[in-house]
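Weekly puzzle thread! Below is a chain. First person to post its structure in token form gets bragging rights.
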Amino acid sequence: MAQSASKLFGRSLPHQAPAAPKALPARRAPKPMDNFSGCYVGYPLGEQPERDVARLGWLCGPSNGMRRVERANKRAEEGVSMLMLREVTRAGQCWRWFFVAGRGVTGLEFEIEEAGGQQAFFEGGGPRWAVIPATRPYCAASSGLLQLKLRTRQGEGQVAFEAWTMSSAPLSSHPQVATSERPADAIP
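Winning reply:
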């Protein structure tokens, strides 16, 4: 047998229609994660550079509409600049490069040169792994030869590398920022 609310609570309740729920404060829609930089957040670095760079490439490449075009495994020597990629590219073609070095190799530095030897981008630093560029793809300003060089500041050992590309700049990418001056510690 059902009892009335007033008998259950020992007092009489006013008979009113339920109040309309209060409107929630307006909130901004969440920003979608920028997958060019979010793809490697929390990346667990292992002990095998070739395997680690393959996982890193697969985390960041296909999810951003890119395809792998090159992979290499080379031995880096401290302070020695080495050519990692030499590719004919067309204006607007976009790239991303992934590197994982073995234990004992630190301080990875990179130089990208476009047609005519002009330095178009330089990014240095990093522990034993790097995604170049870190937050967006690098899109070639002109057609011609593109070269990517690597130099380590400390240590010697294995460096695994993958190159991924897409045919043009994604709509979400940031505008290309060209480096007008060569940093003092750039690769000669």
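Puzzle host: Confirmed. Bonus trivia for everyone else. The radius of gyration is 27 Å.
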